[in-house]
């Protein structure tokens, strides 16, 4: 153990001075640790020892900069302040709890930055807690996981405090400036359960835009009570516009009450499109399961028709075939017809993109996974925080961003032609 510790101390200067870290030194330390029976991870392991030494070395360097002289040296103009021993402090790190010796100065004016006063966790631990929370783990599960894997005792209240720290970032994110023009904005919702006297469903609405470059941009999150109308949507869309979104070419949604009227008020030239997939799903609610396949087959010619006139003819045929048995389905399509037909006027590149909100189904799936693990939330704000964390953890590798961009490449070219250059003009 002594030899390994000596090697760590000898290697500190190399670790702090070299970038990147000397691979040969790291390999030698690992080999010596194994030869000496020292574990690489866990309590008393090599990684924990390295963390301790590097933190203490960095803190000593901070104090040297603060005092203006090395240990035993004198500052210019006298030695008004000097080193005054150390105090022991345990911090929670990604390597587990580490006890470090924090240097002190006589005047008490030293404010360490790497491990600040009263700080008990390094930043990596907070990030780990936020990541686990975004994946749907409850506070109790996160506490148990950290204790089992890292030997770190973090209470549920502390975890709640860590996750609460994202609220300021969420507010800043929700109010950030937006692009001046978006080819398409999708609006959909995920229901969460909130305990407000009694457990009730609350819709969390999400606006997801496609940028002119083909990137995904989540514009914001809003929580409602399920009774939202035109006034509510006018407020939401006005907020988006005030953040810089002067024009939206198309807005795709799932028949949200009052939304089309609000869109026409905020962006008069925007086309509102009902999600065809949601329209089909809603149709099946009024039919017996044994008829679903037949109904889907009869409706397919309606939403794949080359023109609005042809779609109307096919819908008349559907009405004749199924209107007597399922009049509610006919009324559903008649009520949604004005928002259903707009996409029929476009080329296939645009049609297959805007006829559904499937573009955000993967996001919804991640959110549902996170909220399902919680069961229900004590407040609307707690529910919104969970959804925000899930959204911020999307696509950590960036591969989804690349797929999204490739998917939209052809459609964006068609958009600029179809909408007479509004997309290009809005970017100038």
Automatic annotation (TrEMBL):
Pfam families: Transposase_mut. Residues 63-83 have a biased composition (Basic and acidic residues). Transmembrane segments: none annotated. Keywords: DNA recombination, DNA-binding, Transposable element, Transposition. One of its GO terms (molecular function) is transposase activity. It comes from the Bacteria. GO terms for biological process: DNA transposition. The keyword rRNA-binding does not apply. InterPro entries: Transposase_mutator (IPR001207). Residues 62-85 are annotated as: Disordered. NCBIfam families: transpos_IS256. Required for the transposition of the insertion element. Belongs to the transposase mutator family. This is Mutator family transposase. It comes from Streptomyces antnestii. The lineage of its organism: Bacteria, Bacillati, Actinomycetota, Actinomycetes, Kitasatosporales.
């Amino acid at each position: 153990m002594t030899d390994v510790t000596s090697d760590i101390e000898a290697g500190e200067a190399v670790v702090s001075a070299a970038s990147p870290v000397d691979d040969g030194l790291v390999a030698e330390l690992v080999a010596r640790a194994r030869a000496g029976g020292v574990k690489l991870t866990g309590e008393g392991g090599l990684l924990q020892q390295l963390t301790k030494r590097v933190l203490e070395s960095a803190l000593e360097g901070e104090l040297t900069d603060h005092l203006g002289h090395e240990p035993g040296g004198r500052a210019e103009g006298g030695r008004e302040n000097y080193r005054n021993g150390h105090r022991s402090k345990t911090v929670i790190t990604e390597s587990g709890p580490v006890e470090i010796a924090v240097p002190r100065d006589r005047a008490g004016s030293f404010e360490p930055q790497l491990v600040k006063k009263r700080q008990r966790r390094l930043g990596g631990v907070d990030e780990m807690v936020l990541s686990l929370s975004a994946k749907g783990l409850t506070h109790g599960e996160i506490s148990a996981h950290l204790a089992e894997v890292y030997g770190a005792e973090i209470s549920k209240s502390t975890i709640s405090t860590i996750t609460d720290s994202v609220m300021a970032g969420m507010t800043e994110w929700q109010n950030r400036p937006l692009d001046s023009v978006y080819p398409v904005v999708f609006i959909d919702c995920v229901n969460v359960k909130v305990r407000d006297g009694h457990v009730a469903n609350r819709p969390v609405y999400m606006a997801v835009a496609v940028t002119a470059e083909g990137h995904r941009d989540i514009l914001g999150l809003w929580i409602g009570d399920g009774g939202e109308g035109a006034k509510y949507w006018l407020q939401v869309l006005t907020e988006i516009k005030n953040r810089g979104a002067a024009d939206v070419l198309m807005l795709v949604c799932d028949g949200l009450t009052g939304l089309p009227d609000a869109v026409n008020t905020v962006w008069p030239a925007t086309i509102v499109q009902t999600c065809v997939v949601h329209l089909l799903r809603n149709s099946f609610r009024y039919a017996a399961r044994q008829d679903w396949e037949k109904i889907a087959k009869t409706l397919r010619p309606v939403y794949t028709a080359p023109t609005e006139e042809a779609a109307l003819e096919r819908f008349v045929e559907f009405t004749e075939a199924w209107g007597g048995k399922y009049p509610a389905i006919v009324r559903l399509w008649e009520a949604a017809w004005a928002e259903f037909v707009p996409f029929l006027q476009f080329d296939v590149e645009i049609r297959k993109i805007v006829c559904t909100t499937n573009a955000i189904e993967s996001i919804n799936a991640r959110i549902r996974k996170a909220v399902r693990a919680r069961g229900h939330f004590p407040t609307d704000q707690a529910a919104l925080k969970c959804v925000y964390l899930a959204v911020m953890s999307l696509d950590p590798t960036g591969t989804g961003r690349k797929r999204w961009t490739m998917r939209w490449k052809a459609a964006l070219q068609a958009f600029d032609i179809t909408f007479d250059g509004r997309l290009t003009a809005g970017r100038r």
